Amino acid sequence: MIEENFDFSAAAKKKIFAYLGIGVLLMVVGIFMVMNGGHGHEAGGHAEEGGHAFNWMQRVWVNLWINNVYFTGLAVIGVFFVAIQYVSQAGWSAGIIRIPQSFGFWLPIGGILMLATFLVANHDLFHWTHHSLYEEGGAEFDEIINGKKGFFYWPLHEHPSFPIFYVARMVIFFGVWYWLFTAIRKESLKEDMEGGTDQWRKMFRLSAIFLVFFAVSSSVSAWDWVMSIDTHWFSTMFGWYVFASWWVAGLALITYIVVLLRDSGYLSFVNSSVLHDLGKFVFAFSIFWTYIWFSQFLLIYYANIPEETIYFVERLSSDKYAPVFFVNLILNFFFPFLVLMTRASKRHERFLKIVCPIIIFGHWMDFYLMITPGTLKENGGFGLLEIGMLMVFASLFVFVALSNLAKAPLVAKNHPMLEESVHHNI
Hints:
- The protein has helices spanning 10-35, 44-50, 56-87, 98-103, 107-125, 143-146, 149-153, 164-194, 198-225, 238-263, 272-303, 306-316, 322-339, 343-347, 349-376, 384-405, 418-422.
- The chain is an all-alpha fold.
- Helix 3 (56-87) packs parallel to helix 16 and helix 9 (198-225) crosses helix 10 (238-263).
- The longest helix is centred in the first third of the chain and has 32 residues, at 56-87.
- The protein is globular and about 70 Å long.
């Protein structure tokens, strides 16, 4: 029987709060730079769509939304990873299952932040929230968006007011995700006390329910929280695309934390074969993300339909976003593909410690590229505000995860397949 407990030391907390403080400082300086950076004029593209001048707070709201969506994704992917391990009856991961499990504690925080951000800043984030778009005969009436109002405002009214259907989906998704997460967590801790296989079987059933619900909710949340920003545009592959980005980032974070814990003297029983499997996941799904990215891009490029190509035109024809477009491909495909191609690189911590944080940041850039061009148009940018807010969210997410990791045994000591993880060899 393996018993390990993670000690979330005062030194570790001090380091996290130092990063948090630096993030807040950079964010404040970044806000002052945006306020005094010549962006107070009315932006042509944004004025045409939103009917109002650019304000520095819009960039703050957009950054809040990017980080809300991204870190919510990491949290729910942690639960998704756990659920997959139980449903597939995997043994290799039994020794590290508590790490992704700890990500789920961010879900209620992420849910509150996302709901609050939407309620306060919906007009700055989503063009479809402007009621004038639905007034037939009005100067701003939009037939395409009006045709989609049932998706946001159901039950339908002649003049949409509050997007009850949209908000209800958000609340339901977070509520069910967190409910199933807490149920799985409860049985996992009970297994530590009682042993046997009863709790494992319950977690198998709960995980199966979670996976079925996640299959639907992950795609719909991608449509709601990201794709609806570009309301005229849609892609039938977008749900898969957002999931792939979340999934690779989540795998990289799990791997990175495992490696750092081993460096700190924990998880000594986790051998190079377990690291190899984690590395293979990161490598393989980086290619999977690229496959989805290329499929979506190629189909739209080849069809050359203006209503579809505008999404990529806005990103490739802009001096602000075109560099990010190519950096996104380099960080999320070419770099991990070349570095993790060999068997040895997947088994050695030094390679994983380099690749994983770059991928985590790379997929944050992916969400930046999905959200910013559609919300800020040419008023967007990448500077101290973006870096600072990312550091704030990352520090808080890590603090929540590690705090809860320390509240229970680091290893699920009575997991029926723990020995398989200890003796895993490939």
